[in-house]
Design goal:
Length: 121
């Protein structure tokens, strides 16, 4: 997934994600797959915050703390079919998520993880 300017128009807030780096405008992504590709291709500055929207509520959650699902039944702008939730409780209560595998931040973002990421989720 290519990301030319990483300041995408977000049509569905519940699928959005963003990078907030010191001294820079936030970089907004309309699909979690775009965020993952961006992080894999570029180093991030110290102090960068990475946030994902809870698919059930639209509220921002630290990407390292979220739980993820790849569900082919959920349409996303770039067809990653990835959604995030604040917690397992939010994920389990989301009627649009089918019984699909639960993923961690490490599963989505790879071994580099997200800035401030933890490997225990």
């Amino acid at each position: 997934m290519a990301c030319a300017n990483c300041r995408m128009t977000v049509v569905d807030r519940t699928l959005a994600s963003q990078l907030v780096a010191p001294g820079e405008e936030p970089r907004v992504f309309d699909d979690l797959g775009c965020l993952a590709a961006y992080l894999a291709a570029r180093p991030t500055a110290a102090g960068t915050g990475v946030f994902v929207a809870d698919h059930a509520t639209g509220e921002w959650v630290a990407a390292a703390d979220a739980v993820y699902t790849r569900d082919p039944a959920i349409a996303t702008p770039m067809n990653s079919h990835l959604v995030a939730h604040r917690s397992d409780a939010s994920r389990n209560a989301d009627p649009s998520v089918h019984p699909a595998a639960r993923l961690t931040a490490a599963d989505v973002f790879g071994p580099a993880m997200v800035p401030g990421g933890r490997r225990d989720r």
